[in-house]
């Protein structure tokens, strides 16, 4: 039985990759230096995995930006607008045109060029984002980058024969988008064009001496239309022809094969990898249907969460599989690439952020690889004495976790057990609340203007927080600074002429971490970075135990802001679904339970804000849509608990208090009835870049409550004119009654500078007034 890894985090334990690439972009290092330093990083990562005793170590899992973009370049699917760059670069004889590659990822704007980047979107249901391939009807493919071969060779010279990984042809096409107008063109039509290039890649790897190649087809674990099923058959039949030695490991993750089990098991490949963490139930049917000569790779170590594995439970699964098909047909692996997991837990030494008692329940990538090797030895009855002690200690730690008072809080549980249905309902329907709010919240009757919450977090503001953390600023000094920033912001908003003000969120580093830090049940890391896209990372908090809110969190800041003005100030909270979605969740209870605890904690804060006289409270849920399960069959259940969580958090208030919510980067078409079930009095969202198209779902549904369709794209420093924002509002008025509309930007202004923020908001307020006067 072999161990293998699906993918290793590429960012580096010290985020070396970010530093290298950003210095290349800044022109501080040259291409040769970039290639050399990233090679060092790869070699180090291979060595780490070898030292952890992994039998098959992957290559080509590394990327300078994104593995999908690597594949796009590999098969030469370079959109027209970048092709001249390629020529410029090719003249310099580059087998791996890095500058063209970066231009595709980020766009290129200089004296000679102005080319837009390719689109970016979420990688399945993770927080990783990939660059979306673009396909045209007359798409040609042609082998373009030697990266996959170079890395194989590189590892070989370092003494490691790797298993190259490659996104499979069907998933590659499905990940992309048709960029051609023609109605009946589907990207899967390009399969015949694409397969010869894959064929060539496999042949070359075979010649180089590769034994296994991991070919990733995550779409096999999702619902497939018929032509996609056919595409899988065509593709793998063809790839099986005239290949002798090279073995294909068909790799799936994030979901179970479900109704595609027969299809996947019938494809002519040499092995199949399945995710048994996300979908443990698929094991039996796969064991039943798997071809006699195929290997089965069991994905048993969670590639996406940070908890230690339960050796006993997991070994039982391996034993069961071995009984069915024999040890030598089995491999064991993490469930998915470890790209979604931080690198090394041993770096976490700050016990204030991550107490030792909690750390001992956790494993990052390096620890997970060690677990994998131990698991193999445990099943093979091959543990040394020290290893046996390690396994025992781990089982003991996990047994402690099940009982620990750090995890279980009887007050929280009692409160949850005694909830009644009232907790999900406001006192009255929206139509009645609206009247109460018109009296209580002093706003113009039509087109009230507001913002989404944050205002520019200047260097200065971030410096205060850093200094406060380091003890260079006392608590009093820090809080005084924040108060002054709030007061100044209130004056600015009055001057701009906004109607519903905010306090600016200057006290927050991040909208999830800030709340997590003040809730019980959360821990934090100092180095636990996970790649989000390109050189950007996130450092998710860890939910380890029952969550509650010991003390009010935002009330003092909101009250202070309110005390500075006669205009209403909106309280600002992060919603339960988003807090859950952007953290590492507990693995000992369903997410639907954890979210309720967070919802109650937010509910307490909402009640206190109302009590303090805050008349409008916004509960942000930007991650509401991204939590949607990949398989349509599981969506209803998610939407039920997610909607309930929002209601649980928000319904504590009286009719007169106005509940807002905010969602960005969302499509609403297929979830609009659930958005309506949230029953927020006002929802604001991102719509400016789609020219209000995202509003259609609300119109068609006859969405009854108030809506703030964003009229100003905050992602760019550009200042939108009054005329263009008026035009957007007119589009909205064409389809919705004016008394349903708010005027606001697409999202928070945290990443913007004041230079563009002030004029943009002034223009926005002018647009609102124009609408009010001309209706
Ligand atoms: N209130 C938050 C802000 O303005 C919302 C951020 C978000 O939607 N991602 O920054
Ligand atoms: Zn937003």
TrEMBL record:
The keyword Repeat applies. Zn(2+) binds at residues 662, 664, 686, 747. Zn(2+) 1 binds at residues 664, 686, 747. 5-methyltetrahydropteroyltri-L-glutamate binds at residues 15-18, 122, 127, 582, 626. Residues 447-769 form the Cobalamin-independent methionine synthase MetE C-terminal/archaeal domain. It catalyses: 5-methyltetrahydropteroyltri-L-glutamate + L-homocysteine = tetrahydropteroyltri-L-glutamate + L-methionine. The active site is at residue 715. Pathway: Amino-acid biosynthesis; L-methionine biosynthesis via de novo pathway; L-methionine from L-homocysteine (MetE route): step 1/1. L-homocysteine binds at residues 452-454, 505, 620. Residues 468-495 form a coiled coil. Residues 3-323 form the Cobalamin-independent methionine synthase MetE N-terminal domain. One of its GO terms (biological process) is L-methionine biosynthetic process. Pfam families: Meth_synt_1, Meth_synt_2. GO terms for molecular function: 5-methyltetrahydropteroyltriglutamate-homocysteine S-methyltransferase activity; zinc ion binding. Keywords: Amino-acid biosynthesis, Coiled coil, Metal-binding, Methionine biosynthesis, Methyltransferase, Repeat, Transferase, Zinc. Catalyzes the transfer of a methyl group from 5-methyltetrahydrofolate to homocysteine resulting in methionine formation. Belongs to the vitamin-B12 independent methionine synthase family. NCBIfam families: met_syn_B12ind, PRK05222.1. This is 5-methyltetrahydropteroyltriglutamate--homocysteine methyltransferase. The lineage of its organism: Bacteria, Pseudomonadati, Balneolota, Balneolia, Balneolales.
């Amino acid at each position: 039985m072999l161990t293998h890894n699906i993918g290793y985090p590429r960012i580096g334990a010290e985020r070396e990759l970010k530093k290298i690439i950003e210095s290349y972009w800044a022109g501080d290092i040259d291409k040769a230096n970039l290639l050399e330093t990233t090679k060092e990083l790869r070699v180090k990562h291979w060595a780490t995995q070898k030292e952890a005793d992994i039998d098959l170590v992957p290559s080509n899992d590394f990327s300078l930006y994104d593995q999908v973009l690597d594949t796009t370049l590999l098969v030469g699917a370079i959109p027209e607008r970048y092709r001249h760059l390629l020529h410029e670069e090719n003249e310099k004889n580059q087998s791996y045109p890095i500058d063209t590659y970066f231009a595709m990822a980020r766009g290129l704007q200089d004296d000679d060029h102005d080319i837009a980047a390719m689109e970016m979107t979420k990688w399945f249901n993770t927080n990783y984002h990939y660059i979306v391939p673009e396909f045209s009807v007359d798409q040609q493919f042609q082998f373009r980058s030697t990266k996959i071969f170079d890395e194989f060779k590189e590892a070989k010279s370092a003494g490691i024969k790797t298993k190259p990984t490659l996104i499979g042809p069907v998933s590659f096409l499905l990940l992309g988008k048709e960029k051609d107008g023609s109605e009946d063109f589907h990207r899967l039509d390009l399969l015949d064009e694409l397969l010869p290039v894959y064929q060539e890649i496999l042949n070359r790897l075979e010649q180089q001496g590769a034994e296994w190649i991991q070919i990733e087809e995550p779409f096999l674990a999702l619902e497939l239309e018929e032509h996609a099923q056919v595409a899988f058959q065509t593709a793998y039949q063809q790839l099986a022809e005239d290949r002798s030695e090279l073995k294909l490991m068909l790799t799936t993750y994030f979901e179970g094969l479900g109704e595609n089990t027969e299809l996947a098991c019938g494809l002519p490949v040499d092995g199949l990898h399945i995710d048994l963490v996300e979908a443990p139930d698929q094991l039996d049917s796969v064991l039943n249907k798997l071809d006699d000569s195929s290997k089965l790779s069991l994905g048993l170590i969670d590639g996406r969460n940070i908890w230690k594995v339960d050796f006993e439970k997991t070994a039982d699964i391996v034993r069961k599989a071995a009984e069915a098909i024999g040890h030598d047909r089995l491999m064991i692996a993490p469930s998915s690439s470890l790209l979604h997991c931080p690198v090394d837990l041993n770096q976490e030494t700050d016990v204030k952020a991550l107490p030792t008692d909690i750390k001992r329940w956790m494993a990052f990538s390096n620890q997970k690889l060690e677990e994998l090797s131990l698991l193999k030895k445990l099943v093979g009855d091959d543990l040394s004495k020290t290893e046996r002690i390690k396994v025992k200690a781990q089982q003991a730690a996990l047994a402690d976790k099940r009982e620990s008072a750090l995890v279980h809080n009887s007050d929280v549980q009692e409160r949850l057990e005694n909830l009644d249905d009232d907790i999900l309902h406001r006192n009255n329907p929206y139509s009645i609340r609206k009247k109460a709010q018109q009296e209580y919240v002093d706003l113009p009757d039509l087109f009230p203007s507001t913002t989404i919450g944050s205002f520019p977090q200047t260097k200065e503001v971030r410096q205060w927080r850093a200094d406060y953390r380091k003890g260079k600023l006392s608590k009093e000094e820090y809080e005084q600074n924040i108060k002054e920033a709030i007061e100044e912001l209130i004056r600015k908003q009055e001057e701009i002429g906004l109607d519903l003000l905010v306090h600016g969120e200057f006290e927050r580093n991040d909208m999830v971490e800030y709340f997590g830090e003040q809730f019980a049940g959360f821990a934090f890391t100092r180095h636990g970075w996970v790649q989000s896209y390109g050189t950007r990372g996130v450092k998710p908090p860890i939910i380890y135990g029952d969550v509650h809110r010991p003390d009010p969190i935002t009330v003092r800041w909101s009250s202070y802001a309110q005390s500075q003005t006669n205009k209403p100030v909106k309280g600002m909270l992060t919603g339960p679904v988003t807090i859950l979605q952007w953290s590492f969740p507990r693995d000992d209870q369903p997410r639907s339970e954890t979210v309720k605890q967070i919802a109650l904690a937010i509910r307490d804060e909402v009640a206190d804000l109302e009590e303090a006289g805050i008349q409008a409270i916004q509960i942000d849920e930007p991650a509401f849509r991204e939590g949607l399960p990949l398989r349509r069959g599981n969506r209803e259940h998610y939407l039920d608990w997610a909607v309930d969580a929002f209601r649980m958090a928000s319904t504590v208030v009286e009719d007169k208090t106005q509940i807002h919510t905010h969602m960005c980067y969302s499509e609403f078409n297929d979830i609009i009835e659930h958005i309506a079930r949230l029953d927020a009095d006002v929802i604001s969202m991102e719509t400016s870049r789609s020219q209000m198209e995202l509003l259609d779902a609300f119109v068609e549904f006859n969405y009854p409550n108030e809506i703030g369709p964003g009229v100003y794209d905050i992602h760019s420093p550009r200042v939108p004119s009054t005329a263009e924002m008026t035009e957007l509002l007119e589009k909205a008025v064409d389809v919705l009654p004016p008394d349903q509309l708010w005027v606001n930007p697409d999202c928070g202004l945290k990443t913007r500078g004041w230079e563009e923020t002030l004029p943009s908001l002034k223009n926005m307020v002018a647009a609102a007034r124009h609408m009010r006067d001309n209706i």
